[in-house]
Amino acid sequence: TIIAHYNINLNRLYSTGLSNGGYKSYLLACSMGHRIAAIASVTGAMTADMKLACAPAHPTPVMEIHGTADLVVPYTGGNANLPVDTTILYWVSYNHCNPLPVVTTLPDVAVNDGCTAEHAVYQGGDNGSSVELYKIVGGGHTWPGAPLAIGVTNMDFSASREIWRFFNQYSLNNLVTFQADELKSESGEVLIYPNPSTKGVTIQFNNAAERNLALYNNMGVLITEIKTHSQKYELDLTKGFYFLRIEEGSK
Q1: Which residues of the chain have pLDDT under 50?
Q2: Torsion angle of alpha carbons 94, 239, 28, 14, nearest 10°?
Q3: pTM of the complete model
C-alpha cells in the first residue's frame, strides 16, 4: 500500500521494533530477506525454532539493543528464546564477520538512569555487512533514549538515532551479490550464467524436458511464466534483482 502511494526505494527497506517487533524483525531477516536490507531489534530475540528455520537471502546487517536486567525477554534466554549472545554469534557467523568485536564503553552521561551501555561491533562481513550489539548493563525492557522512561531506561544514547545510523550504511543491491560468475544447483541439474549480468542470463539444463519457469521481482511479484522443453533458454532482463522458480515434474 505504501509503495502504491509513495516513491519508495525498494533497495532501502529495513525493519526495527521493540520486544515483539524485534522478534518480527528477525523473522523478516530469516524468511523475507529478499526485501529487507538490514534489521535492528530492541529487547527482542530469536527463538530456537526460528534459528533452525532461518534462511537469510543475503549477508544481513543486524543490530541488537538489549538490557541485562530485562525481565520480559531475559538477556540470558529462556522460554524457547535464545540468549542474546547466541543470536549475535549466529549472525556474526552467517555474515562471516570478524569474531573479535571492537568493544566501546559509552560515556555514562546520564548518571541517574541506573544503567550503563557497552557497544560491540563485529566488522568485515561479506559484502560489507556487520553486526552490532548495544548491551545495556542493568537496563530493563525499554527503548534507550525514549522521551518517557518506563522502568530502567538508558539515557546515555538514543536507540532511534543509532538504528538509523546503522541502517543508513546499507542497501539491498549492495548486499545481494554473487561471489561467482555463475549459479549452479547443488544437484548440478541447472546452470544460470552470467550472474550477475548486464542484460540477461542463460538457463542451461543437463537434459531436455518439460519445465515451467516463473520469474519474480524482488517484491515477489510474478513477472512472467514460461513453459519450455529446451535444454537451454535465454532470458532477457532489465536492471534489478530477480527470483527464478523452476518446476520439473514433482521437483
Answers
A1: 178-181
A2: 100
A3: 0.72
